[in-house]
Amino acid sequence: MDYLKEIIEKLKELAQKLIETLLEPNKEPEIELIPIPVNDPQDYYGN
Fold first, then answer.
1. 32 lies in which domain range?
2. Angle (nearest 5°) at CA 8 between 7 and 12
3. How many of the other CB atoms lie within 10 Å of CB of 33?
4. d(Cα 33, Cα 19) in Å, to the nearest integer?
5. For position 38, what pLDDT does the model report?
6. What's the domain count of the chain?
7. CA distance 47 to 11
8. Taking the chain, what is the end-to-end CA distance rounded to the nearest angstrom?
9. Residue range 5-47, pLDDT digits in tens
């Protein structure tokens, strides 16, 4: 029974975080990183 109570508490915490995230307009979105191609030294020397 304690196991179920722990699961319910975790679900409540996750739901609260989700609601806070959705209702918080001031938070800046996460910056999406753009991959930068790097030349392979083997290609440069023709190996």
1. 1-44
2. 120
3. 6
4. 26
5. 80
6. 1
7. 55
8. 64
9. 999 999 999 999 999 888 877 767 678 888 888 877 666 655 5
DSSP secondary structure string for all residues of 1-47: -HHHHHHHHHHHHHHHHHHHHHH-TTSPPPPPP-------HHHHHT-
pTM over 0.85: no
Cα separation, 3 vs 11, whole angstroms: 13
CA distance 6 to 23: 26
Residue with tokens 């959705």: 22
